[in-house]
Amino acid sequence: MLPRGEGESPTLDAMWDNENPCLSLQLQNAYLHGIHQSYSVYAQQLNEEIGDLQGQVEELCLKEAFWKKAQDEAKEACEKRRQEHTPQNMPNSDSLKPLTVEAPKASGIPDKKDKATQLAREALAEVKKAPRGSYHLASAALPHMSALRQAMQGDDLGDPDLSSKDSDSDFGAEPESDHDSDSEGTKRAKRLVRRKYHAKLTQLKYQQGFLKHEPPFIYKGECQAGLFEKWVREVREWIKRGRLTTQQGIKLSGKYLAHSAYNFFEWDILDLKKRYTLSEYFESMFDYLFPPDFHMQQ
């Protein structure tokens, strides 16, 4: 737009000269023509900006339609997955909260692992925490001193290495060598790092060599207490002799599962990334595979 105000642009009255009216009219016409051209350019710029805004609005409308469709497909896929993987021995009770699917926010790409699957596992976790008389899981019916329960719990009272942050395969690069410019304190620190690195390298070589020998047999999810107990004991011994951490052992145990047992592993460990102790891992698998009245069937 043209600037206005005295001292910034002349006015029509200031251009008028009574002694020379013809020249005054020419000056006024030229001034008005310049204003017209300036406003035409400004109007063209506004039209271009309006066109850009309209294009952005159309693009946003298309994106909104796309995300809405993606959300609907994600909800349907998660609901279908939940129905396919929900254990048949999942107890039905009015005290369990109904599962609900929350649509992902439109501000980001819909997450394939929607909350439906997570809520299903949380519902099962609530069942396990309930008083023994409220729900009936297969593990709850096992006698405290039974061989199967002792196999799942192991010789110790827990799995202490779960509290530490496992680095699994996070090995890192080889430590830096000493330099002539390093101080004595820096050289000592580097030597300590190199010792830890070589100790971990030695352990890794041992693990890789051991894991090829005498692995557990492949358990397919058969509802046979003796067979499940045998697999649990073999996995525990395999983890112990291989010097594996809890999380390393659980993740590698999936190689020795098949059919319904692998379905549990895929759901809990790969999809939901649950961090179990070994005892919790075996007990959750047992509850997934065995019916609630399993003990009464023996």
TrEMBL record:
<protein>
    <submittedName>
        <fullName>Unplaced genomic scaffold PAXINscaffold_54, whole genome shotgun sequence</fullName>
    </submittedName>
</protein>
<feature type="region of interest" description="Disordered">
    <location>
        <begin position="153"/>
        <end position="189"/>
    </location>
</feature>
<feature type="compositionally biased region" description="Basic and acidic residues">
    <location>
        <begin position="176"/>
        <end position="187"/>
    </location>
</feature>
<feature type="compositionally biased region" description="Polar residues">
    <location>
        <begin position="86"/>
        <end position="95"/>
    </location>
</feature>
<feature type="region of interest" description="Disordered">
    <location>
        <begin position="77"/>
        <end position="99"/>
    </location>
</feature>
